[in-house]
Amino acid sequence: MDPKAMYKLSYGLFVLTTKFFDKDNGCIINTAIQAASEPNQISICVNKANLTHDMVMQSREFTVSIISQDATFDLFKRFGFQSGKDADKFEGFSDKVKRGANGIYYVTEGTNAYISVKVEKTEDLGSHTMFVGTITDMEVLSDSPSATYAYYFDNIKPKPEAVGKTPEGETIWRCRICGYEYVGEELPEDFICPVCKHPAEDFEKVVK
Ligand SMILES: Cc1cc2nc3c(=O)[nH]c(=O)nc-3n(C[C@H](O)[C@H](O)[C@H](O)COP(=O)(O)O)c2cc1C
Questions:
Q1: In CA terms, which of 12, 79, 81, 95 is 20 to 30 Å from 157?
Q2: What is the CB < 6 Å shell around ligand 1?
Q3: 99: which residues sit within 8 A by CB, 6+ positions away?
Q4: 158 with 76: CB under 8 angstroms?
Q5: How far is the CA of 168 from the centre of ligand 1 (A)?
Q6: Which stretch of DSSP H or E encloses residue 55?
Q7: Environment class of residue 132 by beta-carbon count within 10 Å: exposed (0-12), middle (13-18) or buried (19+)?
């Protein structure tokens, strides 16, 4: 069995947003798909370690803004490389969001559409919860093509220098999923990426 087969899967990229009482939050996900057409349903899978996960569990409503090829790395840094547990991700971002009919922010820059969903079902999948729901609202925002995960890696994410060692001579391990770099001779077997929450097997030793 070759685990690299998993890397052949293709994904879109999305800003998943929600609101619970006064708190707005959101994170980057690659797991939104149309799950059925009659009734029209969307599913998303969100890591239980994410604040957005707990908030969707409570609010039972979310919006996915579909990321387009116009997006810059700043959008990914803001929503994918920090947690709403430590930061207000909407601070200084008010000109790039609007509230939809459900009261939840959708992102208007670097996106081409948004879809708002009311959660009907949840499924505990271990590390992640799958949320399935019906669409309550949706709009097209631009004609720019949607960004795939491959497009993000090739064109949006800054290329890390392909060096195997830090200037101090330590080994670097890089997460194949989000690019996070761990410095150390051996990567602990139970290591979990602090950014995208993927396990040690998704890390590769960076070689010159
Ligand atoms: C390119 C990219 C894709 C990601 N895909 C997912 C995903 O599908 N599911 C998920 O739960 N987290 C995913 N993440 C990680 C979350 O966006 C990240 O952990 C975020 O900081 C969580 O924020 P929160 O704690 O405020 O919810 C992804 C991050 C990046 C950069």
A1: 95
A2: 25, 27-31, 46-47, 50-52, 76, 80, 82-85, 152, 178, 195-197
A3: 105, 106
A4: no
A5: 30
A6: helix 51-59
A7: middle
Residue type, 41: Q
Residue range 83-101, pLDDT digits in tens: 999 999 999 999 999 999 9
Task: Please tell me the residue having the least CA distance from ligand 1 atom 29.
Answer: 80
- Provide the strand spans (E) within 125-206: 128-140, 172-175, 181-183, 203-205
Find out whether 78 and 130 touch, Cβ atoms under 8 Å. Answer: no
> pLDDT grade, residue 160 (50/70/90)?
low
- Among 6, 18, 50, say which to mutate for ligand 1: greatest number of ligand atoms within 8 Å of CB: 50
Measure the CA dihedral 37/38/40/46, to 10°: -80
All structural domains of the chain: 3-153 (2.30.110.10), 160-208 (2.20.28.10)
Structure pTM?
Answer: 0.85
Please say whether the beta carbons of 182 and 102 come within 8 A. no
